[in-house]
Design a protein that fits this description.
There is one protein chain. This protein is of the alpha+beta class. The chain has 2 domains: 44 residues, no CATH class; 41 residues, no CATH class. It has 2 helices and 4 strands. Strands 1-2 form a two-stranded antiparallel ribbon. The longest helix has 15 residues.
């Protein structure tokens, strides 16, 4: 086992092993996870513009979905398309 501090409170995260990926867990509890996700949403916005390379289509994907589940190309169709208005992204 290795000891990694929580990204929010600094407490050691339990249950990480040498074989865990660095991004396996960044927080020690559900409450710290929620605080961390809310901070990222505040800092980077609630949605990200994700593009499909084959077609050039872009989609509005919630940051929470990206953090908690990851997003595969075949899942992009369930999200709304990203539309530009007056030269600004919305």
């Amino acid at each position: 086992m290795i000891e990694v501090p929580c990204a929010v409170c600094g407490k050691p995260i339990q249950g990480l092993s040498v074989n865990s990926t660095p991004a396996a867990r960044l927080t020690c509890s559900e409450s710290c996870h929620e605080r961390f996700v809310n901070f990222l949403i505040f800092k980077y916005g609630p949605c990200k513009k994700i593009g499909r390379v084959r077609t050039g289509e872009t989609f509005r994907v919630p940051l929470r979905d990206i953090i908690e589940h990851g997003v595969k190309e075949q899942e992009l169709d369930k999200y709304p398309k990203w539309e530009e208005k007056d030269g600004n992204s919305n």
